[in-house]
Amino acid sequence: MKRFLPDTFTILLVCTVALASVLPVSGQPAHYFAFATKLAIAALFFLHGARLSRDVVLAGLLHWRLHLVILATTFAIFPLLGLGLGFLFHDLLPGPLYLGILYICVLPSTVQSSIAFTSMAGGNVPAAICAASASNIFGMILTPLLCGLLLSAGGHGGVSLDAVSQIFVQLLLPFLAGQLLQPWIGNWVRARKKLLAPIDRGSILMVVYSAFSEAVIEGIWLNFDLGDIAMVLAINIVLLTLVLVITTFGSRALGFSREDEIAITFCGSKKSLASGVPMASAIFAGQSIGAIVLPIMLFHQIQLMACAVIAQRYAAKRQAEHAAEVPISA
Length: 330
Hints:
The chain crosses the membrane at residues 30-47, 68-89, 95-117, 129-151, 163-181, 202-223, 229-249, 279-299. The mean pLDDT is 84. The chain has one domain (2-317): Na+/H+ antiporter like fold. The protein is mainly alpha-helical. The protein has helices spanning 8-22, 27-51, 54-60, 64-89, 95-105, 112-121, 125-153, 161-191, 193-218, 220-223, 226-253, 258-269, 273-283, 289-329. It is built from 14 helices and no strands. Helix 6 (112-121) packs antiparallel against helix 12.
């Protein structure tokens, strides 16, 4: 069925990994490419800051209970589940892949797809915009901090001060610059979303190509087999299923409306590939980044397929209820 087919960006990711596997960049060209990648990432986060309206941020503060639940799911429940699954499956996965699973759990939520699925399902779209945006803003600070705590608990050491400073310079400063200029350039940037889309996707593809080029040179495909990849897929599915159950039934137990439940379910269960890949290059500098980002690349496609099905079911249920109300009102 169409909803189970990979999206265009996922296909580009696969092609990028394949290209890096056959033609990895190395030597002096790799240094130039790494510098260009850092510039592209800075441009990506500058545009994120320029797009985000301050009115949206201020409006989101009014629905603090919903945002608190989403942030708690993203930065507390997810890491706890990651640690729990890590203790269960630690011996079944090579170290870098297990590190990648832990890394998934400390990443912020997605922005575009969370909003799109919330809209498709008939949920609270303004709340989803605020929650997903807030998750990414807090993520630039919380992700490296939680990464240090989680990796220490998992026996992988912490995060260096240099990594935190790189994230600040490469991600947070461009974002803040975009926010400062947002009143003057925000409308222009939002009106040219399609024109500027290549910067969004291109910067991520550049990081993936650079990371996998290095990993291929180090022998990533010799160190891992199909069984390792299958185990990563299985853990990702279990992790996503647990969070979907917690967000769906937890929001109902807390008395949220269905519209809010939909926003909590989609914003709380998703993890950002767009933020995760650039941050990994700073946090895990000098390590096998290709193996670490591989789990989030797989999680990205799994969450898209699962959320597409869930969004369609929410929408179908809403249409059925609306159709049942029409004769009564007539």
